[in-house]
Amino acid sequence: MGRHSLPDDSEPVGTGGRSPGARRRTVVIATALVLAVAAGTVVALRSDLLPFGAPCGGDVARLDVVASPDIAPALDEVADSARENETRTDGKCLDVSVTARSGAEVADSLGQRPARSEFQVWIPDSRIWVDRVGAESGTPLTASGTVASSPVALGAVPSAARKLGWPKKTYTWSGLTETATSGEALRLGVADPARSATGLLALARIDAAHAKGSDGTADPRTAATAKMLYQRVADGDGQVLATLPRDGSGAELGNPRRNQALLLSEQAAFAHNTNADGGPDLDLFYPEDGTARLDYPYTLVDEEELTADQSRAAGRFMTLLAGAAGQRVLREHGFRSGNGEAAGKVIRAAGGRAPQPYTVEQADPPSVKEIQALLGMWTITVQSARIATVVDASASMAGQVPGRGGQSRMELAKNSLLQALATFTPEDEIGLWKFATLLDGDRDYLELSPTVRLGDPGTNGGTHRDELAAAFRALAPVPNGATGLYDTTLAAYQKAHDTYADGKFNALVVVTDGANDDSSSIGLDALVTRLKKLSDPQRPVPLIAIAIGPEADKTALDRIVAPTGGSAHEVSDPSQIHEVILKAIITAGSTAPD
User: Fold this and answer.
1) What SS3 class is residue 380?
2) Nearest to 14, CA basis, from 410, 387, 492, 353
3) Which parts of 248-368 are beta strand (E)?
4) How far apart are CA 543 and CA 541, in angstroms?
5) In what helix (H) or strand (E) does residue 344 lie, and over which residues does it extend?
6) What does the pLDDT look like over 495-550, one tens digit per residue?
7) Please, which residues bridge with residue 440 across strands?
8) Of the candidates 252, 254, 288, which has an alpha carbon nearest to the alpha carbon of residue 154?
């Protein structure tokens, strides 16, 4: 069937063995599963559920199951076997119908609380979809156990795998993705994390490797990795597999449209390698710092609304999947057992070899909050942005920053803003305002460069990016100018609101080193009230405020940003501004206005 030599089902020898704690958990889970199956068998015998005795006739118990497309064929095989064997539930023949639908599609549907679902059991590829429906207060779901699992790894065609040092060279998540996307980078593909659990879990592990115990929001390095991954993103798991070379010819391997490596599940690699028409086999790298894992939860949909027949049928089908025959079918389709125990034939057919750590312990799954932050980061990072930048030009910005060789706050702020500018694409729309009291007649603010596409032609022969960079470099403190913060913030936010661009990430960034010094301006309470009225969840414009130094009024800024879904950040060194902007943009993706 496949082209790998397949050993027996014994676990291959490799690195990354389970810890004693992991082994104990495995024993507990396995014991619970055995007891559950045994208990179910006893009940089945007493209730005439098993296929002993007379044929079923026309009396059937119907169960409709929706499952992830990768596991649906295995479930179909178990369901067909149940029909052929006239397996019973409460005296009725068990008739299970399996429909393949992606987890994202079903989660979108169940999150809308339909009046009545057309299916009773849902088996997505990951619990993250179940958690998402719960977070949205959607259709009630009951996860009743895990029927299979598959770790997420990086698969590469042989020539690319050799470049990466397979099988002897092992990597962390961050090391693997950085190596695969830097220098003479491989063409690395990934399924869209917004639609694929595999892509999202891989991104979560990359972020966890970067964050190292930070505050829980996505690390800026994750955003940089996301930008690179987006260049080769596919809509879903099936589509990303289709980007691999179709054969081993030089034309296919060298085709720039073909990926040389993918972030994918072990089961997907198994299916590819055992498909006679799948193209060159994949070799698998298993990151050594904790694997992400698809866990296929057996989930009851709106359990209280199930009929007695449906409830019994759902329980009966689960015992079939958990039993020896069901687990054998799942293994033949490339899945591990629900507790993640490695199976020799599966691993070798998928492309795993020692010393790759294919038995490494599963990392803790990301929380709903972490998933929301990652999805926000991904959405914002890969779509175009429209951002107006408002910079304090009051006299205090001329103050020197300790330990920075005599450089002023303004000089360091300009350099950092230019660094931030370099990260945006020609499709992004960026503008610049400056402010100080009485800067433009009675107004405390002045628009220096409009918020338009960086790739648009400039007025002097270059591009808007060129002119904007020149405007940043020309920023200078205004002698005797004070901080006209409140009027400026309202005017800039009003314009950002009025010029909102659909399909882009819209935001307003305000950089200041002081408190509001304009006694004739709008007051703080009135400003917050006006911002609440302007804020629209359907057209969000988060306000990102960056306070430089101890004189900035961080308390006031916290109040100002709250109605907009934005955030306020304090920095002692203006050179940190570009990092803070990126982190604030990431945070804005998962924060709703107050």
Assistant:
1) helix
2) 353
3) 261-265, 283-285, 293-294, 297-301
4) 6
5) helix 344-350
6) 999 999 998 889 999 999 999 999 999 999 999 999 999 999 889 999 999 999 88
7) 443
8) 288
Task: Give me the phi and psi of 326, to 5 degrees please.
Answer: -65, -40
Integer Cα distance of 48 and 44 in angstroms: 6
Distance CA 531, CA 527 (A): 6
- Which of 43-47, 136-140, 234-238, 479-483 is predicted with the least confidence, judged by mean pLDDT? 43-47
Helix (H) or strand (E) run with residue 188 in it: strand 188-191
Distances from the Cα of 474 to the Cα of 321, 372, 419, 432, 481, angstroms: 69, 39, 15, 12, 17
What does each C-alpha distance from 333 to 71, 89, 98 come to in angstroms? 8, 26, 16
Q: What SS3 state is found at 566?
A: coil
Phi, psi for 291 (deg, rounded to 5):
-90, 145
Contacts for 59 with CB less than 8 Å, ≥ 6 apart: 91, 92, 93
| In contact, 389 and 431? CB cutoff 8 Å | yes
Task: Say what the pLDDT of residue 3 is.
Answer: 39
DSSP bridge partners of 445? 435
Cα 176 from chain centre: 18
Candidate ranges 93-102, 373-382, 423-432; pick with highest mean pLDDT:
93-102
State how far the alpha carbon of 277 is from the alpha carbons of 57, 281, 333, in Å.
Answer: 42, 10, 17
304 CB burial (10 A radius; 0-12, 13-18, 19+): exposed
Q: What angle is formed at CA 382 by the lines to CA 377 and CA 383, rounded to 5 degrees?
A: 105
Asked if residues 227 and 190 have their Cβ atoms less than 8 Å apart, the reply is no
Q: What burial class does residue 564 get, using C-beta atoms within 10 Å of its C-beta: 0-12 exposed, 13-18 middle, 19+ buried?
A: buried
Write out pLDDT tens, residues 432-486. Answer: 999 999 899 999 999 999 999 999 999 888 999 999 999 999 999 999 999 999 9
Give the model confidence (pLDDT) of 206-265 as tens digits.
988 876 544 444 566 777 788 788 888 999 999 999 999 988 888 888 888 999 999 999
Query: Which of the four pLDDT bands, split at 50, 70 and 90, describes residue 587?
Result: low
Nearest to 259 by CA among 197, 191, 196, 193: 191
- Which of 351, 2, 349, 342 has its CA nearest to residue 166? 351
Q: In sequence order, what are the beta bridge partners of 264?
A: 153
pLDDT in tens, 23-41: 333 333 333 333 343 334 3
For residue 56, the model assigns a pLDDT of: 61
Specify the higher pLDDT residue, 292 or 181: 292
Q: Tell me which residue of 388, 423, 381 sits closest to 219, measured CA to CA.
A: 381
pTM above 0.70, yes or no: no
> Which SS3 state, helix, strand or coil, does residue 405 take?
coil
380-415 burial, b at 16+ Cβ within 10 Å, e below that, comes to: bbbebbbbbbbbbbbbbbbeebeeeeebbbbbbbbb
Residue 428 to residue 505: CA distance in whole angstroms: 9
Q: Is residue 400 within 8 Å of residue 357, measured between CB atoms? A: no
pLDDT at 402: 87
Cα separation of 532 and 563, whole Å?
5
User: Which letter, b or e, does each residue of 130-144 get, where b requires 16 or more Cβ atoms within 10 Å of its Cβ?
Assistant: bbbbbeeebbebebb
Q: Are strands 385-392 and 543-548 parallel, antiparallel or unpaired?
A: unpaired
